[in-house]
Each structure stands twice: as C-alpha cells, then as structure tokens.
Design goal:
Length: about 190
C-alpha cells in the first residue's frame, strides 16, 4: 500500500494572490504556498501581530511578512506593520535597541516564540545562539549614512480647498481621512 504523495507546489501553481501570469510574492521570497499564506492572513485577522494596528492604518496600508533568517535557519514569524518589523530587527540584533523601541523587547520575544513557521525547540535554541553571536549594528559604525530625505505632507491652507482636498485624498488612507473628518467636525 503506497501513500498518496501531495503535489509539490511550483511557480506555476502558486498564483492565487498574484496578478495574472505572475507568481505570488509569498511563494517566491518565503516559500509559502497560497494555503499557508491564507492561514497566515487568518491568524493576523487584518492587524499587525505585535502592536495590533489595523492593516489599513499602517504607514503603507499593508502588513509585511516577517521572518527570521540566520545560522542556517529560515522561518516565517507572522505579519507586521513596518514599525514592528523594525522592532523585530532589534530583537534579531541587526540594530541596537533604542529608548523608543526598548519597551517592546518582551513582546518581540513572545512574538518570536509564537512564530507561524512553528520551529522546533532545537531550532529556537539555534536561532537564539545565532542572535547572541551577532554584533549589533550602530549607525555611528559607518563613516557616512546615505538616507533619502522623507517628504513631509504639507497642506497649504491659503490655496483652494479643492486642491487641498485632492492632496489629502492622494496622501491619506481612507481610514486616516475618516479620522481627520471626525477630528475636524468635533465628533470624537
């Protein structure tokens, strides 16, 4: 009696979340099947798994797949907003903990231990050894740091309201616009 072997996913079959003719990003970068990605989405329930911010309210309006990679290990931990993803880089000792990120240290550890990829205890120990062996990166370690200046949203109130409204529609998410309307109308 032979057991039926499930088909191995390939680039042509993992396309459910991609544009027609394309392969899913979660498959190409993280090796996750569409079914795995659907389970990850269900687990996150539309929120960052660390800070619980709604996906629509994140800076980019989307969550990113967070993963651990190092010491011969690779596993997906979950879905995070950009800010919490940078907190996890501190957990992984790629960047030093700072005053604003330090309060998240315990939550980051708990989140790491609840990884979606379900690593074994031995794999967690191997990951911890690798994290402990890393030299923390400090900005002052570099002779120079190229950073693209971030453009701030400037809304000039001496311009037409139509122009102002168009600019706000371009730069704010729907939830941010709703919140702005609530604040301006005094309906808090």
């Amino acid at each position: 009696m032979t057991a039926e072997i499930p088909p191995v996913p390939n680039r042509r079959t993992e396309t459910r979340h991609a544009a027609p003719g394309k392969t899913c990003n979660h498959f190409q970068k993280y090796g996750m099947t569409c079914d795995d990605f659907d389970r990850l989405l269900a687990r996150a329930a539309g929120r960052c798994e660390l800070c619980k911010t709604l996906e629509e309210e994140t800076q980019r309006g989307a969550l990113v797949i967070d993963h651990f990679e190092g010491g011969g290990l690779f596993f997906v931990r979950g879905l995070l907003c950009d800010r919490c993803n940078s907190v996890m880089s501190r957990h992984d000792r790629a960047v030093a903990w700072g005053p604003s990120s330090l309060p998240w240290k315990d939550k980051a550890r708990a989140y790491h231990l609840a990884a979606f990829g379900q690593p074994s205890l031995d794999e967690f120990e191997q990951a911890d050894r690798h994290i402990a062996s890393r030299r923390t990166y400090h900005v002052k370690d570099r002779a120079y740091l190229l950073v693209a200046p971030r453009k701030a949203l400037v809304v000039r109130l001496d311009r037409s309201m139509t122009e102002t409204a168009a600019k706000l529609r371009r730069h704010l998410t729907e939830r941010q616009r709703e919140r702005l309307i609530e604040l301006l109308s005094g309906r808090e």
